[in-house]
Specification:
The complex is a heterodimer of chains A (241) and B (298).
Chain A: H1 2-13, H2 16-35, H3 43-75, H4 78-83, H5 89-103, H6 105-117, H7 125-137, H8 140-152, H9 155-172, H10 184-190, H11 194-206, H12 213-240
Chain B: E1 9-18, E2 21-31, E3 36-40, H1 47-54, E4 62-67, H2 72-77, E5 81-84, H3 96-105, H4 113-119, H5 135-147, E6 153-157, H6 165-180, E7 184-189, H7 192-198, E8 201-206, E9 209-214, H8 216-222, E10 226-231, E11 245-251, E12 254-259, H9 262-271, E13 279-281, H10 285-297
Parallel strand pairs in B: 3-7, 3-8, 5-6, 6-7
Antiparallel strand pairs in B: 1-2, 1-4, 8-9, 10-12, 10-13, 11-12
The chains are: A mainly alpha (241), B alpha/beta (298).
């Protein structure tokens, strides 16, 4: 299985869409937002807040990209070819999940590093640890949503659907512009998005608060919904394979 | 290596329906180890479905499939089989070397990479990205994926479809090497000369059933396809009753007799003093194939 993960990671790193949406854009947007004074509030606070936003945005890019890869693999006949090797289906699925979990790391790391090195963000070590852990683990619902699209849709439309979903969730969840600047009707919607709860966990930690129960429950509920969706997509894809 | 002596491939009354279509219809086929078998048939005869059943990619609706006496999926897990589907199987953004190293790594006792590259004649492509290969090059890489694990059974669905004449010749040279190592090889093709030349045994499929099974010589004989023809001269319907004749056709001023015993037919013609501008044309497998599959349609 590790050979499979290695191959998939190699492919991911050579994927222009991944590098742009998962790593480059979040870092560039982070630096632009914070250094052109577009981020709200005190400069240091803004650097922290936007750092979390953009790390979350990059992680979403990585998570959804992994799902699009599934559709591409199916279209290329690669999933069938894998079934003709001694790898078990469980190893293939597990390998893809591990690949997705690793693929979100560079985006998160790049934005956090930009925060430290360029914007001189400093936080207590335990807060760093908690932020990294939550940003990483919190990608699971989005990975599942991306996989569901990847299983359910064909190559091109899966990629389009995933990019559109990723951008919608990023913007609506307040990752680009804080929800506080939204008109009230839009803010009301934003508070129910999984992306807002996801980033919210780390925003709270970054400023020394504890995540709210609402954020945890909401993200867990979305995890369940997207999990069911991924299983549904997988079954459908299995019938057609 | 397995120690059991079960047939490499065994399908028993296997049936697979797609909606109302019986793609494979009660098909029974046993391939002993070490045989090179060609699966021949027109499009829609059920070749690819048969291959999918025996590799465990599709479950049969009824009947059984086994490889080396094992459930096909289990045999594949043990690395006993390597296969090349008709199309696809190459992922973008990896090099030939990376792809083959990965596939080989999933097998318990793979061939060294250099051997695989030589066998598939892709030495010069090792660092090329697989999404930047020509059709023929991609075909050879797909073949390399099927053999790199050194499996006992190699299944190839239309392996030479994208190859030019020279590449096909080279491909069959490589296959001969594998066959001589005792590998069991099953390939489907609609290049009839390939089946004739490279298979120990030809299995002709039509409508999901085996309609002929034997050496290519046996199949030609079974299809009764030596053609004896003479110039037509007056009333000739009686020629259809000559010994060996199974089919008669008058075309271009000549009577064409398809016969299962050309010697007897020619002798009878001579006795009846009907030899006028005699021609005897031996059957090729293509004729046999057409005859067998059209007979099936009647």
């Amino acid at each position: 299985m590790w050979g499979y993960v290695r191959l998939e990671l190699t492919r991911t790193l050579r994927d222009g869409g991944y590098v742009i949406f998962g790593i480059v854009m979040p870092v560039v947007m982070y630096l632009v937002f914070t250094n052109l004074g577009l981020a709200p509030g005190d400069k240091h606070d803004a650097a922290i807040y936007t750092m979390v936003s953009m790390a979350a945005y990059g992680a979403l890019g990585g998570a959804f990209n992994n799902g699009s890869g599934i559709a591409e693999d199916r279209a290329a006949g690669w999933l069938r070819q894998l079934r003709l090797t001694p790898l078990t289906p469980a190893e293939v699925v597990a390998g893809k999940v591990v690949t997705g979990a690793v693929a979100v790391v560079p985006g998160i790391a790049a934005v956090l590093l930009a925060g430290v090195l360029v914007n001189h963000v400093s936080l207590p070590p335990q807060r760093w640890l908690a932020i990294v852990a939550l940003l990483w683990a919190g990608t699971v619902p989005f990975s599942l949503l991306g996989l569901g699209n990847g299983y359910r849709l064909s190559g091109q439309s899966a990629a389009m659907a995933n990019i559109a979903t990723m951008l919608t969730l990023s913007i609506l969840g307040g990752l680009w512009v804080p929800v506080g600047k939204f008109p009230s009707w839009l803010a009301a919607i934003a508070e129910w998005t999984p992306s807002n709860s996801y980033a919210g966990l780390s925003w709270r930690i970054a400023f020394g608060d504890v995540p709210t129960l609402r954020q945890v429950v909401l993200l867990s509920a979305w995890l369940l919904v997207f999990g069911v969706y991924a299983v549904y997509g997988y079954r459908r894809a299995g019938r057609r394979a | 290596m397995t120690t059991n002596t079960a047939d490499a491939v065994s399908l028993t009354s296997a049936t697979k329906r797609f909606g109302p279509v019986r793609a494979v219809d009660g098909l029974t086929l046993a391939i002993p180890r070490g045989q090179t078998v060609a699966l021949l048939g027109p499009n829609g005869a059920g070749k690819s479905t048969t291959i999918a059943l025996l590799l465990g990619l599709l479950p049969p609706d009824s009947g059984q499939a086994a490889l080396f006496g094992l459930d096909p999926e289990q045999a594949v897990r043990q690395g006993l089989a390597g296969a090349m589907p008709q199309e696809g199987g190459l992922v973008p953004r990896v090099t030939v070397r990376e792809l083959l190293t990965f596939v080989a790594g999933t097998y318990p006792a793979p061939l060294p990479l250099d051997r695989v590259l030589a066998l598939a004649r892709i030495d010069d492509l090792r660092d090329r990205r697989v999404d930047r290969l020509s059709g023929g090059q991609a075909q050879r890489v797909r073949f390399a994926m099927a053999v790199c694990g050194d499996p006992d059974l190699i299944v190839l669905d239309e392996p030479t479809a994208a190859l030019d004449v020279e590449a096909r010749r080279e491909f069959w040279d490589g296959m001969r090497g594998l066959a001589s190592q005792g590998k069991t090889i099953l390939f489907s093709t609609h290049y009839l000369d390939e089946a004739d030349e490279h298979a120990d045994r030809v299995v002709v499929l039509g409508h999901g059933r085996v309609i002929a099974d034997g050496t290519s010589a046996e199949i030609k004989r079974a299809a009764a396809l030596t053609t004896v023809s003479v110039a037509a001269d007056g009333e000739s319907a009686w020629l259809a009753t000559l010994p060996g004749v199974r089919h008669m056709e008058i075309r271009g001023g000549r009577v064409h007799l398809r016969t299962g015993d050309s010697d007897a037919t020619v002798l009878a013609l001579a006795r009846a003093d009907a030899v006028r501008d005699l021609e005897v044309a031996p059957a090729d497998l293509e004729d046999a194939f057409v005859a067998l599959t059209t007979k099936e349609n009647v």
